[in-house]
Amino acid sequence: MTDPLLDPQFFKDPYATFTRLRSAAPVHKVPTGSKGRYSYVVTGYAEAREAFADPRLSKDTARFFTGQPSRRNLHPAVSQTMLATDPPRHTRLRAAAGPAFTPGAVARMRPYITEVVGALLDVWAPGEQVDLVAGLAVPLPVTVICQLLGVPGDDRTMVARWSNGLFAAGESDRIDAASHALADYMADLVEAKRREMDDSLLSHLLVRSAAGELTGDEVVSLAVLLLVAGHETTTNFIGNAVLALVQHPDSLARLRDDPGLIPTVLDELLRFDSPIGVATFRYSTEALVIGGTEIPADVPVLIAPGAANRDPAQFPVPDQLDLTRNAKSQLAFGHGIHRCLGAPLARAEGEIVLTGLLTRFPEIELAVPSENLKWRQTRLMRGLDSLPVLL
């Protein structure tokens, strides 16, 4: 048996695989990586929510891989981010970055986000065919998170390219090279901010470092994580949401006629096509049981929000986009102490994009057959390489 999460068809449409696995059991043992290795994949909603909050599932990847031979050459600033830590270190790191992503902080950023969205839409005209991913879904979140961190404008395209390279499934050399390029760049930028402080998030992290709350390496690692997590997920969210709407004309018309509904339907759009298919690495620190499946100690456990959000036990008729559905319990941003720190920012960007897009171009349509769309080749992210639309 091969890893079902690395099948080419899985990247194109993971939901058939998720349904097959979940229908048999909410937790599955599957082969992964080298011969003889395996992990457990959690596909049921209740089981995923339980697993997200279970302290016996550690995110300390450095501890898990200690003593194991590795051919990888990931930069430590990428391989040992806050995502790969447990409390109390995780608690300390999250507290340092958290104030920048509170609802109040995000509210203060909304005018800037609106300005960026307007500028991106200004270059489009009715009747044009455009790539919504390249022209809107990628540049908006990159611009916003780079502005927040203090990344110079001329560097943002290059930084986004390195970030994208981190998710090149099956291309370990490309991933490793991108990790070093991005980490080295961010280390240089941190040093530049240290010499000339400003009002950027990087400078605020350096203040915490000077107070002894963060090490220098932790500032660089946090900067890398916030940059990558701050735009990759949102890029996928925007692309997936627009695709879902153009594939469901009645839903599109509903929002076009009443844009005030957009904030209330973001959870359903996130549920329907989650920007995270399979959450980042966890492993069992002791034997446990989830969903009736016995999981031994010291094995990887992969939680799949994309599967959990289509669990009919939680969301009736889950393969149907239903803008009247109460989907607040969706798990696209995870759950528990590792829930996505930037969720408020992602929601604000999604809301402002959809409002601007449907106001400017109310008759937007998909420009190619759905089966011709190309998806990113990574099991972690669920996102489009491109989205050709007719304005």
TrEMBL record:
<dbReference type="InterPro" id="IPR036396">
    <property type="entry name" value="Cyt_P450_sf"/>
</dbReference>
<dbReference type="InterPro" id="IPR017972">
    <property type="entry name" value="Cyt_P450_CS"/>
</dbReference>
<keyword id="KW-0503">Monooxygenase</keyword>
<keyword id="KW-0560">Oxidoreductase</keyword>
<keyword id="KW-0349">Heme</keyword>
<dbReference type="InterPro" id="IPR001128">
    <property type="entry name" value="Cyt_P450"/>
</dbReference>
<dbReference type="InterPro" id="IPR002397">
    <property type="entry name" value="Cyt_P450_B"/>
</dbReference>
<keyword id="KW-0479">Metal-binding</keyword>
<comment type="similarity">
    <text>Belongs to the cytochrome P450 family.</text>
</comment>
<protein>
    <submittedName>
        <fullName>Cytochrome P450</fullName>
    </submittedName>
</protein>
<dbReference type="Pfam" id="PF00067">
    <property type="entry name" value="p450"/>
</dbReference>
<keyword id="KW-0408">Iron</keyword>
